[in-house]
Amino acid sequence: MTTPNSKIVGSAVNRIDGVQKVTGQARYAAEQMSEHKPLVGWIVASDTAVGKIISLETGLAEQSEGVHAVVTYKNAGPMKPFSNPEDEGRFTQSRAVLNEPYIRHFGAPVALVIADTLEQARYAASLVDYTIEGQTPELLTHFEGATEVPDSLDGGFEPDANSGNKPDNNDVKTSVNSTYTTPSQISAAMEPHATVAEFKNGKLEVFTSVQIIAPAVQALAVTLEMDPKDIVVQSPFIGGGFGSKLGLHYDATLACIGARYVERAVKVVLSRRQVFYNTPHRGHSTQQMTLSANSDGALVSIVHRSAMPKAKGYEFAEATGAGARVTYQSQYIESTHRVKDVDLPLIDSTRSPGDAIGSLAFESAIDELAHEAGVDPLTFRLNNLPVVHPMKGTPFTSHNLGECLRQGAQQFKWQHKPQPSNGKVIGHGVASAMRMNIFVESSAQVEIDEQGKVTVCTDMTDIGTGTYTILAQIAADALQTSVNNVTVQLGDSRYPASCGSGGSFGAASTGSAVKRACEALIDSIQSQLPAELSNAKLYVEEGKIKAAKPNAEDSATPFLITDYIPTNTFPISAIGKVSEDDTSDDEQYSCGAHFAEVEVDTYTGEVRLLRQYGMFSAGQILNIKTASSQIKGGMVWGAGYALTEGIHHHEDSASFVNPDFGEYHIAVNRDIAEMSLDFLEEPDYAASPVGAKGIGELGITGAGAAIANAIFDATKVRVRDFPITMDKIISG
Amino acid sequence: MATLNLNGNDVSLPDDPRTTLLDFLHQHLSLFGTKKGCDHGQCGACTVLVDGERVNACLVFAFQLEDCEVTTIEGIGQSDNLHPLQQAFIERDAFQCGYCTSGQICSGVSLLQELRNGDPSAVSYNSKVSLKEDISERMSGNLCRCGAYPNIVDAITDVIALERQ
């Protein structure tokens, strides 16, 4: 059914890949090439963090039943080494492994055993004998240990920034001086990283689970010293990414070098424990803050200093101070970031780098200051909102933090706390969310056939965000057809290169590229019509492309496009591109306010969430259903970050104590209670041509701090070491 | 020859005694609807029904299931004949990446039967616990990193309401 001029963008369209996903028919990376059963590779993992392999015995494994090969540094073939100084871009740099007898971190591959079945490969792996001459690993164990200024911070922030003048002591009425720590954390997407690779006539075909396709092709080309034209990467379905699949990891390199060695298709699927070591995690942070307010309750000084580890040879450091720089007006703001190179597995983006953990600390410290100043934490925040960027003085394209806080408090009923039952206390918490909006280069192709069937092609990915669906909605609106009439094909390096999924930039950037492609397609069709019809408005109805000439007397009688354009001209396609030039230079932020109601058992310290609520402003919402789901997901992460999640390090071995779901506790269903949210919708066309801003990281930013602040409100215990487990509340 | 009944069809059990039901589905039958998230019974992504009850397919060996009836997501419903819970998952957007979804739905289908049977959960003894909380408790063996939990509970609640009409 077509209803021209209807607005499909924004509406709660069900996911167009929903049936595939609820019936188990969506094919993820490890499930590809099943028709000719790839061989199975299993990793022999290092039991030492740093060192040199001085002996390696693979004979027993090679003779084991079903084994085709044991690939090690001795036979893996040529690769460009990891972290060459001339390497550029962390998602395109070499991902070499098994290329040298050196081990860089605990759990790193020492060998890959390739066999007919998983059981055979795994057993044979236990027969590989190796000795590593180890060195003492370097870790960051205290704030002062981080002395290096990172070359850059994720999101393009300067490592150090300050603005304004330090206040006179006379102007400071209230101060807090607090140090918060957040633990190492991991994305832990439900789908472990997996790759199936095969060389066919010198070309490399790869199915893998990766968020951004084009750099993955480049990374393989660099690593394997191949021409990128000879590599096809496909990632049609991805079982969650959250940053951990921005780039390729060892599963990809190992499957490729394995396939190169045995000259057959090879599949490498990481085990859950291997995911912890062979894919990135978020480093732990120590955040020292001094915050001061004057006698009017106005912030006069914000000082935020961050210390985090950085993996050796890999340029990634997160901007934990980003929120401190932008959320509130203050006479003086100072923010510094220091890192230390450590011998840990890759440290990289985990959902909302910078702000996820920055907000835990900063929004808790702001809460401390509000309480010290004797001002309601909601009022304190409202009293200190910026009009322009507090450090740069530049305007925001839109700024709705105040409205989010005000309207959110009303919806949440900030003033109304229920009566606790015996032995329990109940608290309310609030936190602000400011997440930088990023708009990046992207492209897409849109094609229409003579029946008006529309196909969108781009190497964009859907990591669960709903990309398939929102791109169909955008194309359906632009071409005046129904979502059912649009096919979306994603995750294939042969399609036009997109920005991929990450940094909350995917929907706005690629969505805008699809919109541009549709506009170009309409232009192309209109240009082939007789001059007097060339401004006719196109739409698709009943399997035909039609048009109506606007402002004409005969507009009620539309005509068929195929009456003027020969059918053999179809399909007609067009490419749409967007770049950074399509976005404003002003400050772009998505905003939000998180509220939480918790109940704490005064005997055990057990925290139970009663309610989480959020009010958000992120420009045009492309699909209210999938957008709400994504925000809720972020709020669930916030609950995990506040209450349960954290990697425990074993410092002597530089290993992780709890690298699995049994011990690394992500939130489970029963941890979450009532959860709801609303959007303050305001299309922001300065931010992107489709008016949308990022939401993927907005939901987590501040969500955990609202819970932490609610725990303080309930118990008067301020836990500054996340996660807030029961022991810390009881001893507080 | 030893067989198990999978989604209504008898299939021969594998020779290798180390093969789990999960790896059997993947390696021998190329049936990939059941997912591997941890291989240790910690995440529930591989939940299937064995003789009507939910089981983590990674925690049983295939040879243990001689003459058992196994239902995987492929046997719960098909594209043109969705189970009401599959339809409810779509309507309520009870998934994002979709990787845990097969397990969530198998778990949910089993949960519906557990409620009909009056089987207890860890919280059902407490009359103050709401149906939604009980569902949450019963679904806590199925992790979802996309955080679809509230929507999953809504989807299951919808199907219960439908059944009780």
UniProtKB/TrEMBL annotation, chain A:
Coiled coil: none annotated. Residues 148-175 are annotated as: Disordered. Transmembrane segments: none annotated. It comes from the Bacteria. Residues 23-136 form the Aldehyde oxidase/xanthine dehydrogenase a/b hammerhead domain. SUPFAM superfamilies: CO dehydrogenase molybdoprotein N-domain-like (SSF54665), Molybdenum cofactor-binding domain (SSF56003). Residues 162-175 have a biased composition (Polar residues). Pfam families: Ald_Xan_dh_C (PF01315), MoCoBD_1 (PF02738), MoCoBD_2 (PF20256). PANTHER family: ALDEHYDE OXIDOREDUCTASE MOLYBDENUM-BINDING SUBUNIT PAOC, XANTHINE DEHYDROGENASE. This is Xanthine dehydrogenase family protein molybdopterin-binding subunit. The lineage of its organism: Bacteria, Pseudomonadati, Pseudomonadota, Gammaproteobacteria, Alteromonadales.
TrEMBL record, chain B:
Keywords: Iron, Metal-binding, Oxidoreductase, Ubiquinone. Pfam families: Fer2 (PF00111), Fer2_2 (PF01799). Residues 1-76 form the 2Fe-2S ferredoxin-type domain. Gene3D superfamilies: 3.10.20.30, [2Fe-2S]-binding domain. This is (2Fe-2S)-binding protein. It comes from Alteromonas gracilis.
